Amino acid sequence: MGTQVVIGKKHRITKNTPTPSGMLYENDVVILTSLTGGHDERARVEDMMGRIFHITPRVLELIV
Q1: Using 50, 70 and 90 to split pLDDT, how confident is the model at 1?
Q2: Can you give the CATH number for the domain in which 40 is found?
Q3: How many domains does the chain have?
Q4: Which of 9, 12, 45, 51 could form a disulfide with 30 if both were Cys (CB 3.0 to 4.6 A apart)?
């Protein structure tokens, strides 16, 4: 089952995700700003404080 992600929309983090920029916790709300493809798929997200993180898009859930 694939997950749907939409650039420019709000998403919820589905599990705790450590990054070099800091920790994103389960249920944090972020905005997806860009998505890169390839074998190492990465999503650039921005949290509500404006901090930027690069994570795997598998931990994102679209807020409807």
Answers
A1: very low
A2: 2.30.30
A3: 1
A4: 45
- Owning domain of residue 35: 10-62
DSSP 20: T
What's the rounded Cα separation, in Å, for the pair 30 and 51?
A: 10
8 Å CB contact between 43 and 22: no
pLDDT digits (tens, 9 = 90+) for 4-53: 899 999 999 999 999 999 999 999 999 999 999 878 889 999 999 999 99
Q: How far apart are CA 6 and CA 62, in angstroms?
A: 7
Asked if residue 31 lies in contact with residue 11, where contact means CB atoms within 8 angstroms, the answer is yes
Q: pTM value?
A: 0.87
